Structure formats: structure tokens, C-alpha cells
Amino acid sequence: MDNKVYIFDTTLRDGEQVPGCRLNTQQKLTIAKALEELGVDIIEAGFPVSSPGDFEAVSLLAKEIKRPTICGLTRAVQKDIEVAAEALQYAARPRIHTGLGTSDQHVFTKLKMTREQVIEHGVRAVKLAKKYVEDVEFYAEDAGRTDNEYLAQVVEAMIAAGATVVNIPDTTGYCIPEEYGKKIKYLRDNVKNIDKAIISTHCHNDLGMATANSITGVQNGARQIECTINGIGERAGNTSLEEVVMAMKKHNWLDYQTGIQTEKLHSLSNLVSTTMHMPVQPNKAIVGSNAFSHSSGIHQDGVIKNRDNYEIIAPEEVGVSASSIVLTARSGRAALHYKLKGLGFDLETEILNAAYQEFLNMADRISIIENEHLHQLMESMKVKS
Ligand code: KIV
Ligand code: ZN
């Protein structure tokens, strides 16, 4: 099996569904250009039938963004597909992403159909989309809670109808990794002609499992991951692009390849966060402001000796200029010495010990000790640089 894993970014569609994150066309274009430079393979640009603004944005991206595939979402509804096809008409590589719910919960309670009707609707939608574009992705909404045997029937019918990608969304973020992995394996083992389509993961993060589920999906045969920058998206969000990409990069023994230029991750995270008014939590993996800062004495001592002691990612790998040592009341002598040395004060042990006592008193009052505080400390101790 080929080890290329396609990165399908849905920041502009699933990510943009977050209340307050609405983007105008120009903002979508700016982010799409940055995603193209980052190296994503597919950009889901929007849901064209949902509003005139989204139609305009998908049309513009289809014209302007040439390397990645541009994808438009639809329901399994004729009008949606026709409108998406129109929005995508100038794309160099257009994709229509259509589908409907397959879990019993969705089939019987939301769609009020039978299982057979769901398959008929899906097949009709895929065949219609196929009249406009070669590349058609089918999503089995709520696949995470769909019975595997029925899901296999759905997927088989969609591939027979011409789907090039079959998306297995864990829409409600319900699965745990083993369960999701088994689901993908079941499809690989039981669906006729499964090799004619790429299996895609699309995991939500309601139980905090989205990254783990996506990686387990890939280990079981999926070759496309749907994700968003900073993991934004409905409720607890989608799989975070930076997390899955770095997980695969760091575990290179798995030998999965993506085309992502990881040193652009940090700036893209900032762009998305500021444009969408969605602050990134400080302890967010890879792109949080604390992701490369060390504050406890034991860790600081270890990092000063050799940063590999506590850093599995070099900050430059993701576009952060350097990791930082943050001085707090939990910091040790080694960190204080290191920071003072950086400011030109290379203290003998005895003076350092005295400075450390003063520093602790100061740190109990001020939660983070900045360089200006260290200068004040040296001045109060009459130490010259
Ligand atoms: O979560 C989901 O199921 C989706 C589909 C529309 C792909 O976002
Ligand atoms: Zn989703």
C-alpha cells in the first residue's frame, strides 16, 4: 500500500461552522493561499448552496488556487450538487463531497428513511456529482456510530457508483481509537473494490480522541485525513492538522508521507486564530504558546543540559524561533543562572545562591519573572554585567 497520506483541510468549511468564526471571501482566499503554501492536498472551501457568500468564496478559490484540489460540500440533494458544480466549474482540480447519515440514529430519527433508501439516495447523489466532476467523495455521516456491516454495504455501493474517496466521519466524536481502527480495517477487509477508492478519516474531538482516531485510521488503511488548523470546528472541534502531521513526522518509522511544510505551521495557526477570533489554548499541542516553554526547575535544568531531554520537537521544525525558559517560583538555580548569563551576568556560585533566594521572594509576588525584573534584582544586589 502506498504510504502517501493526503491532507484534506476543512478549516474553511467545518472549521468555519464555529459560531463567530464566519469569514468573508477575501479572508477565505488569504487562508487558502497560506494552506496551499503549507502543502495541503485538498482544501474544502465551503458549502456552496448554504449562502451566496459561501458560493462566491468557493467560486473564487476554484479560480485562484491551482495546486490543491478544491472541494465543495453538499448534502445528497440535487440542488446542492448542481450549485456546487457551478461554484467549482473553473477549478483545476474540482471535487464534490456529498453524502448523508448512515447510523441508525441518523437514518431513522433524522432522515426518517430506511437503510435501503439511504443507499439509493447516496448512489443517486454520487452518480449526479460524477456528471460534473471526476473526483467525487462520499461521506457516511455518523459512520462512527454506524454498524460496520451496513457501513460496508454503503461504501461498496458508493464505490460502484463512482466515488473516488469514501469518508468515514466520526461525526459525534464517539469512537475510541481501537474501535475506529477496527472500523477502517473492516471496510478494507470486506468491501469489494475498496482499492478503487481512498478511505478518509474525519474525526471530531468530543472525547479528545480525534488525533488518535485519525492516526489509528491511517494505520488500518485510511490514506486521507480531514482536519483543521488549530483543530477548530463544531463543538469540541475537528482533528487538528498540526497534531496529525507532527505525529506522523515524529514517528517516521511508520513511514507515512505528507507534503506539509511543517515550519509554516506556527504562522498559519496565528493567521487562523486572529482572522477567526479563535484564541489558541496556551497548552495546545504544537501551536500553543506554552508548547515550547519550560517552567519547572527539573525540566529547565534538563533542557539547559540538552534540549532533547524534554523536547521531542525542535521549535524551528514548526516555525517557532526558539523554546523558552520561563522563570517562576518553581524554577531552579540552573534556569536563573542561564537567564542571567543571557543578560550578561555570569555569577559565581556564592552570588548566584544569594540571587536565587532574592529571586524566590520576588517570584512569590510576581508570577512570571521577566528580564526587566532580573535587571532590577541585579541592581538591588549591586551586581554589574
Ligand atoms: O462531521 C461530519 O460528518 C461532516 C460531514 C459533513 C463530512 O462534517
Ligand atoms: Zn465534520
TrEMBL record:
It comes from Algivirga pacifica. Gene3D superfamilies: 1.10.238.260, Aldolase class I. NCBIfam families: PRK00915.1-3 (NF002086). Pathway: Amino-acid biosynthesis; L-leucine biosynthesis; L-leucine from 3-methyl-2-oxobutanoate: step 1/4. This is 2-isopropylmalate synthase. Belongs to the alpha-IPM synthase/homocitrate synthase family. LeuA type 1 subfamily. Its EC number is 2.3.3.13. It is an enzyme of class 2 (transferase). The keyword Cytoplasm does not apply. PROSITE patterns: AIPM_HOMOCIT_SYNTH_1, AIPM_HOMOCIT_SYNTH_2, PYR_CT. Keywords: Amino-acid biosynthesis, Branched-chain amino acid biosynthesis, Leucine biosynthesis, Manganese, Transferase. Residues 5-266 form the Pyruvate carboxyltransferase domain. InterPro entries: 2-IPM_HCS-like, AIPM/Hcit_synth_CS, Aldolase_TIM, LeuA/HCS_post-cat, PYR_CT.
